[in-house]
Amino acid sequence: MNVVLSPNALHGTVQVPSSKSIGHRDLICAALAEGESIVENISPSQDIEATCRILCTLGAVIEKISSDQPGRAAYRIQGGLHKRNLPLRADCSESGSTLRFLIPVGILSGNTITFQGRGRLAQRPLEPYYGIFRQRDIHYQTTGRSLPLTVCGDLTPGRYALPGDVSSQFFTGLLLTLPLIHGDSLLCSTTPLESASYVDMTLSCLQQHGVFIDKERDGSYHIQGHQQYRPGRYTVEGDYSQAAFWLAAGMLGKYIRCTGLRRNSLQGDEVILSLIRDMGGRIDDTEAVHAFPSQLRGRTIDVEDCPDLVPILAVLATFSTGMTHIIHAGRVRFKECDRLHAIAAELNAIGAAIQEEPEGLVIHGVHQLSGGRVSGWNDHRIAMALAVASQRCTGNLVIEGAECVRKSYPDFWQDFKKLGGICRQEG
Ligand SMILES: O=C(O)C1=C[C@@H](OP(=O)(O)O)[C@@H](O)[C@H](O)C1
Ligand SMILES: C=C(OP(=O)(O)O)C(=O)O
Fold it and tell me: Residue 295 CB: number of other CB atoms within 10 A?
């Protein structure tokens, strides 16, 4: 699906979807608990559905209960993993979190399981797990670099060492499962841990579900075995990674108010509030989070701990005065697409001035963009960032492959229209 966006300043109130990252974690913890849990305020998306599907394959019973709030659902989960007699298949769709969180869960279940995926997921790195499998005699087989991947074996207690600069999702996968095995483990990073705030989010979710990990420092965790997840009722808070698009839209458009966000959240992407403020933007978060149109100034932004903000930060920087330098962004090349290349190529095609570096972007501000045809690169965050930029185009902007927002935010285009965006399907 291609969408045609006519330039128009967005304004109004939007309830942001709930956190995809916390949603994955709460669903997995609930599926690992014996007994019934309810996870409320989930924003269903392609990624969340992939996680639910695989948890069901592994033995959990999950019922989706629709909510009176549009775009939200509660999930009733009867937890517990089962060993089946047949080899299992797990379709992760395009979700890196689902794949990397559920590989250790699949092994823990005692099944032989083949993980599959689509789009870029088949090439996204899994080597840190392969190193561990080889050390611990966990059988694995893969035809290409990554997927399909068949695994089976035993998760045994002991020392787990892996690099910290590929993806924090390997740490989360092991932290979710090692507390359940029959002995203690040490999980440590052989290089400084990047995206560390996501691992802290994991520790906090585990704690809420009754599992405790002793963090020595970022990248070093002592994990007691023989623990059990506690079933219960959990509510997922609003998503700062998604709010970032609307807050940026408020900076460049008229005014936007985001509801559903928790202050002092464990989401690293809450940093978007201070990043915008540091660029000179006016954000008021006394009641909900309000973004007021502001002239931003370029600066250096280190995204080591907030990689998902890169596409929208590139848009903000494009309309800022002076130069912005986005640094520590090398890993962003291994997401749903090479995001450094994609956002630079698409914004430059319509008049931006962005230079790619191996691990970052140098962005010189411009007054406006021209509009034209751009690609969403089958990447939700690229498509949503381009949609925000359309407000400041002089002509229509056509975004090709706009359906990719379903990965995390299926209602994005509806919300865009509710905020005054002029959007129609091409053809
Ligand atoms: O743990 C998580 O929920 C996530 C961790 C991050 O990945 P990396 O650790 O690979 O940077 C982030 O980019 C991803 O969207 C979600
Ligand atoms: C990279 C993302 O997710 P995942 O790694 O789970 O595919 C994302 O949502 O931007």
Answer: 12
Does one domain contain both 86 and 200? yes
Q: Are residues 247 and 302 in the same domain?
A: yes
Kindly give, in sequence order, each residue whose CB lies less than 8 Å from that of residue 311, ignoring residues fewer than 6 positions away.
Answer: 339, 342, 343, 379, 381, 382, 384, 385
pLDDT tens-digit series, residues 98-116: 999 999 999 999 999 999 9
Residues contacting residue 284 through CB under 8 Å, at least 6 positions apart: 290, 292
Does residue 233 fall inside a structural domain? no
Query: Quick check: CB of 308 below 6 Å from ligand 2?
Result: yes
pLDDT of residue 375: 98
Give the tens place of pLDDT for each residue, 284-336: 999 899 999 999 999 999 999 999 999 999 999 999 999 999 999 999 999 99
In testing the pocket of ligand 1, which one of 19, 21, 24, 267 has its CB within 8 Å of the most ligand atoms? 21
pLDDT score for 143: 81
145, 148, 150, 155 alpha-carbon torsion, rounded to 10°: 70
Q: Is 124 assigned to a binding site?
A: yes
Put simply, whether the predicted model's pTM sits higher than 0.95 gets the answer: yes
Domain end (from 160, 190, 224): 224
The number of folded domains in the chain is 2
Do residues 307 and 365 both lie within one domain?
yes
